[in-house]
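Action item from last week, closing it out:
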Amino acid sequence: MDKEKPRLARLTAILIQLQSKRIVTAKDIAEKHNVSVRTVYRDIRTLEKSGIPIVTEEGKGYSVMDGYKIPPVMFTQEEANALITAEQLIRKNKDQSLTEQYESAITKIKSVLKYTQKEKTELLSNRIQVRNNRENEKTSEYLIQLQSTISNYQTVKINYLSLENKQSQREIEPFALYTTQENWVLIAFCRLKKDFRAFRLDCIQKMQVLENHFEPHKMSLQEYLEKCSEKYKNTPDIPLAQGQSTFALNHKT
């Protein structure tokens, strides 16, 4: 019986993992749960025999049939604590859309917590203080919308005011986002410059999502950053607080 408990917990965790992505490979599952790929195959068969509609895509991985839902997730106290801590951190983020959408999401998550957990998380919320951005300043409101344009390959038109106080209008293909020194930066292919550029979200004055879509860029974010690092490895770092990050500095908009 003792040996069954870890496996039962693992099976539940694998099911949640399968529902968290469009497709998950056996290698991904094995690495996450520290088991062999052969064990993953056995676990998948067990889930299938229990009635879980798992779809196997040859050469790709596994997914759960679209529309299938498991009962509300039960959180451990430690997981609930982590969510409450993240809530306090995100409240201080400078992008308005992120704070609003996370507040909406965390309210739904709190609704499935056990009664005793709700009491503890409320106590914890009042005992955590994040001291950066004390004025709770909001400098942008486009983060969440831009995330959608990245995943949907949607072209965007922006009115941009650079840190050098230069106005421009750009049509861009959003590629990725990163944050540094409390500022969000968008990496995008600029059709005007015919190259990738870095745009600070707090410098975007107006944004319009266009109806047309673009072809996905044939590289990963890591590959792109490695190329930039190699190209500008001899450039001294300049913090955003002094103007721009080195990355944005070397990708002048």
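Closing note: The chain has nine helices and seven strands.
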